């Protein structure tokens, strides 16, 4: 019924491309596509139970969803995406096809695409990964049952064989009867082998689901992570859910997530921020030192995120690297007689790294290098880094003293050269061709500046 109506409207639209569906027709079509997707989620039409079902194939239904996703009506497009998401939970192999991959990727990276469409694609991916987790968990339970049955069967078979051997010794039976009993015992062992075979088949099925989910995660990972850099909070929340789901299942090596997780800890959405902090903390425990490998990329992504967030709510281009402490935490700080009202945007990242002196000093050194003459960092990014350095949660004197010592060393090496450059620039401004008679006061002031620069240089 629902498939027939959807195909009928498809034929109608193909024959009359200039015609539009009425509101009632659009609602009926959207409902039909949604129900078709739900039916695919719970019923496998490729199974033997549906061998007499010849109205349409799995591929026919897939092509139907793709057709309506490209429809101009946003309501139909959205419901088609929902139906396709349910469909792909059952037939996940289509996620690796170029059609779906290009469709999902193009919609996610398109900033002009509707927010609800982009969020639905991310929700579809999350639902698929969570469904994989559910299936693998169910198969693990089935593995455990089969293993127990196999173990119980072997124990029972061993007990029966031992009892038979004792009876053979007591009754002094002939050798032919003993051989016959041993053959019987061998038959019992064959039953155990059948259980082993069932267990092996179940494990292979679980491995297939896990490998497919891993391939799909790797296929869409780069696009998902790039989608996070957006001022739209709903999209960032959806990305956070997908990332968390992939990390929970361990489908991809976690090092690829670290820059985004570091940026998420600076998100103004509290849910995203807390979840990212938890993920980073778990990674730091299970993979010591892994965060340090991507820390600078994470800080740069934090700056990009803050730029997007501020540009969406303000016309100013000044991106600061500190934030006001939330009310609850500010009250705790006041109870501890602390006057600090701000903290670094990347305070949590520093709190993870500061426990290791080598990692801590490595981070601080890399941040200070961003102020060298050879740096390509913009002035705005340098301000963001300077704010972070000023408001990091230092605990011991060694931390700020190391920064002071490094800055002092840099100034002693490069400071004289910088002042000399200023001196030469100022000299060019007061050449004889530019000096006028009524500029005596300006010349005297300029000479004082030059004298002061000479004193500093010497």
From TrEMBL:
Annotated keywords: Cell cycle, Nucleus, Repeat
Source species, domain of life: Eukaryota
Biased composition (Polar residues): 151-161
Region (Disordered): 143-202
Acidic residues: bias regions: 165-174
Gene Ontology cellular-component annotations: Scc2-Scc4 cohesin loading complex
InterPro entries for this protein: ARM-type_fold, Nipped-B_C, Scc2/Nipped-B
Gly residues bias spans: 185-195
Coiled-coil parts of chain: none
Every Sister chromatid cohesion C-terminal domain range: 213-408
Location in the cell: Nucleus
Any one Gene Ontology BP term: regulation of gene expression
Protein family per UniProt: Belongs to the SCC2/Nipped-B family.
This protein's name: Nipped-B protein
The species this protein was found in: Didymodactylos carnosus
Organism lineage string: Eukaryota, Metazoa, Spiralia, Gnathifera, Rotifera
